[in-house]
Amino acid sequence: MKIALLRLLNQQIAHHRFSRPGEIVAWLGAIQAQDFSGAKWSIGLRLNGVTENEVERAIAAKTIIRTWPMRGTLHFVAAADVHWMRALLTPRIIAGSTRRQNELELTASVYARSEKIFIKALRGGKQLTRETLSALLEKNGISATGQRCYHILWRLAQEGLLCFGAHEGKQPTFTLLDEWAPATKSWSRDESLAELATRYFTGHGPATLHDFVWWSGLKISEARTAIDLAASALEHEVVADKTYWVSRKIPALAGKLESIFLLPGFDEYLLGYTDRSASLDPKYAQKICPGSNGVFTPTVVINGRIVGTWKRVIKKETVSITPTPFKSFSRADKAAIELEAQRYCLYLGKSSQ
Predict the structure, then answer these.
(1) Residue 206 has what DSSP assignment?
(2) 29, 109, 121, 338: which sits with the fewest CB atoms below 10 Å from its CB?
(3) Which pTM value belongs to this model?
(4) Under a CB-based contact definition with an 8 Å cutoff, are residues 177 and 166 in contact?
(5) How is domain 189-247 classified at the CATH fold level?
(6) What pairing do the DSSP bridges indicate for beta strands 242-247 and 234-239?
(7) Which of 245, 250, 243 is nearest to 229 (CA)?
């Protein structure tokens, strides 16, 4: 099993079967999105000819939602998935945040009062920035200093009150989730578990049980149950004593896939797995996440392997991209990287410098 190459195909990096942002987000289940700019490119690189403006229009059109559906981390999810996914995954995250909430003196009363303030301010489709919502809390006698405002917003989003709206200039806004993306149906827990496993292993496979646990935030027993419930849609293969799951509908990889891609730092191709050795030699991990500080550098991928990093400098009309190899790039690699850089520039609507 050629794990890295199959992931390139199944993640729609080396093969594009969709044309709209909402479709690719739904296919993957969720796309990590704490780096807003990078997350938009994660969507764009998986579609043919889509620009950053088109991704932003999909956000404004409410087809993809940015919120905290799993692991307490920001993701993009399809509007049709946000309610069942949040209901399945966030209760455990909320329960695990008790210590931090106590440190910030955030009580049930504070959350209840904040909820009333935000509902009044946002009702009717309004979208307000964090700064504005913070000022509203202060005006109503709730301290929003330090990390308090962030954690109030985080908690109320986890509970299903809020989500991100469209950006106001460079500033993100918040809005009421039920108005932004009304729920369409109720899902049982078993339905949600089966759907989550099917989405993950279809869009990320081949992947292991432990990869799925990492990505979803489920307990290992819950993840096993999810795989069992989705068994009719999945198949597995044992490689080096590890069991890898993949969708039954994904065709086997035929021949050699030669490819070069410029991925953003928090892309699912790396962060969608707890074991990243299929695509990244562990000795280079510190080059991707220096000092293990949680900030991931954009990567150069050649034939499924992460072989370097890249940086960009954006000006008014142009973008310059500088790749840095772990070892060295061949002349052919450099030429292919330049073509991929041009693709990124077109996505941004700028010319290459």
Answers:
(1) S
(2) 109
(3) 0.95
(4) no
(5) Arc Repressor Mutant, subunit A (1.10.10)
(6) antiparallel
(7) 245
